[in-house]
């Protein structure tokens, strides 16, 4: 038995935010063979479950970059309220669009919508995708001290502003920080990553790292690559992600996940025939 840990956006989902028929068939085939296919995403777990259900798929889910683990009894890692308060004080004056991930919804403070002005077409398309997520709720007031926050996400067309905010948060050492795209920054409880969640999955299924295959496209997937015995980057992945992968598959709009699920053993055999040399591409 092997475990395939698969990212959603930019990986399993195509540009229309759908799971293609080819990817659906490949996942069900692996499951029928006794393998575990786990979705590991920055999205809220409830949002990921909805997407899977819409496509007739049933998979364990790791949400919010590892802060939500829906295996066995399930586990959630919340930011402590002191950390949430400190982060809140910083971002209220930073002019970024704010998402506050809770257990059952995502709060969007209305005052932060001003940060959405400007930006190129790619930025505006990314924003539209975020605003149509399941469970989003616009709110006037936030009592941050009364909320159990799973994740903060900050969005801006100004990359320098995000980089500056990232450095501020890293220096405070009160949260784990990552990125899943050029225009966003995400903060979870200290020590939480997709990689730490994968370690929990491995223990739950009594697997070794060599049994785990991680598939992803962005920086928040790199902790998975560090834990998994095999890592596969999408054809549309960032250069830094491709450079850390064992294999490279096709674009997320070209059924790259199905190509990986269907072709992995063949790639492994080819790699072995070349005496363990890193193939780079299939």
UniProtKB/TrEMBL annotation:
Gene3D superfamilies: 3.30.1240.10, HAD superfamily/HAD-like. GO terms for molecular function: magnesium ion binding; phosphatase activity. InterPro entries: Cof, HAD-like_sf, HAD-SF_hydro_IIB, HAD_sf. One of its GO terms (cellular component) is cytosol. PROSITE patterns: COF_2 (PS01229). This is Haloacid dehalogenase. It comes from Exiguobacterium indicum.
């Amino acid at each position: 038995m092997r475990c395939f840990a698969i990212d959603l956006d930019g990986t399993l989902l195509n540009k229309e935010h759908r799971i293609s028929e080819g990817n659906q068939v490949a996942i069900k085939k692996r499951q029928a063979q006794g393998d575990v296919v786990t979705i590991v995403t920055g999205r809220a777990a409830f949002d990921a479950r909805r997407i899977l259900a819409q496509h007739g798929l049933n998979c364990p889910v790791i949400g919010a970059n590892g802060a939500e683990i829906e295996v066995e009894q399930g586990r959630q890692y919340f930011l402590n309220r002191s950390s949430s308060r400190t982060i809140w004080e910083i971002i209220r004056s930073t002019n970024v669009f704010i998402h506050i991930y809770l257990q059952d919804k995502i709060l969007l403070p209305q005052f932060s919508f001003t940060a959405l002005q400007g930006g190129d077409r790619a930025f505006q398309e990314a924003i539209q995708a975020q605003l149509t997520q399941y469970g989003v709720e616009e709110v006037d007031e936030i009592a941050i001290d009364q909320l159990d926050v799973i994740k903060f996400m900050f969005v801006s067309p100004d990359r320098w502003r995000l980089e500056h905010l990232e450095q501020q948060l890293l220096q405070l050492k009160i949260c784990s920080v990552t990125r899943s795209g050029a225009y966003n920054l995400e903060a979870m409880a200290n020590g939480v990553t997709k990689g730490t969640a994968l370690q929990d999955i491995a223990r739950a299924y009594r697997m070794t790292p060599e049994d785990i295959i991680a598939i992803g496209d962005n920086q928040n997937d790199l902790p998975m690559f560090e834990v998994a015995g095999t890592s596969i980057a999408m054809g549309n992945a960032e250069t830094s992600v491709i450079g850390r992968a064992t294999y490279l598959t096709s674009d997320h709009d070209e059924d790259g996940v199905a190509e990986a699920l269907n072709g992995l053993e063949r790639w492994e055999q080819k790699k072995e025939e070349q005496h363990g040399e890193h193939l780079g591409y299939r």
